[in-house]
Design a protein that fits this description.
single chain; about 200 residues; alpha+beta; two-stranded parallel ribbon; TadE-like domain-containing protein; transmembrane; TadE-like_dom; transmembrane helix; membrane
Length: about 200
């Protein structure tokens, strides 16, 4: 009888020891899947915004906001409770020499979580070579072959069930697209927000 009690006691102890490990592995798997999904949605959103802006010859504040809202709709629902997930979006127009005639455009409910990609009027972030699109008829050596850089960031801890995979606090992606029609014309609202005073002409 005592032997059986000993067996039951050992089984209970083993279960108590193994259960936290099983729970930890389950949470880790769920977090890794969530991170993968989050990065996928962020990349898709950033590339959608960059590609759309790259073919525009005119930009207005309402149209830009509609594009941002539509492209980030899935990103905003990444939270497990379907609550809006705060993100920071930075849009920069960068010339071949890394100069920036426009101020970076900021959107999103969060701020200060993206790694700064500019100092003053100079772009300091990573800027990969952007191949021309098939329907881009601009001259290859055009002096106005600027690109639009879209940076999209969110905080990882807003997504995680545990702290097991918090190697980084911030999840951020970047997308770059060539401006196929040169510098877009801005409406009054975006001009006031992006163009430094005295540089409108």
């Amino acid at each position: 009888m005592s032997f059986r009690r000993s067996e039951h006691g050992s089984a209970a102890v083993e279960t108590a020891l193994i259960l936290p490990i099983i729970i930890g592995i389950t949470l880790l798997g769920a977090d890794l899947y969530t991170l993968h999904q989050a990065r996928s949605h962020l990349e898709q959103s950033a590339h959608t915004i960059a590609a759309t802006l790259g073919v525009q010859s005119r930009l207005d504040a309402n149209g830009l906001q509609a594009l941002v809202d539509d492209a980030t709709r899935m990103t905003a629902r990444l939270d497990t409770e379907l609550a809006p997930l705060p993100f920071e979006l930075i849009i920069s127009k960068v010339e071949q020499d890394r100069s920036m005639a426009w101020r970076p455009l900021h959107r999103g409910a969060a701020s200060g979580i993206c790694t700064p990609n500019s100092e003053g009027a100079v772009f300091t972030g990573e800027l990969p070579q952007v191949p021309k699109a098939a329907d881009d008829d601009s001259e290859p050596d055009s002096s106005d072959s600027s690109v639009v850089v879209v940076q999209l960031c969110t905080e990882v801890d807003k997504l995680m069930l545990s702290s097991l995979v918090l190697a980084e606090d911030i999840l951020q992606v970047q997308a770059v697209s060539r401006l196929q029609h040169g510098t877009p014309t801005l409406d009054k609202v975006l001009t006031q927000e992006m163009v430094p005073q005295g540089a409108e002409d």
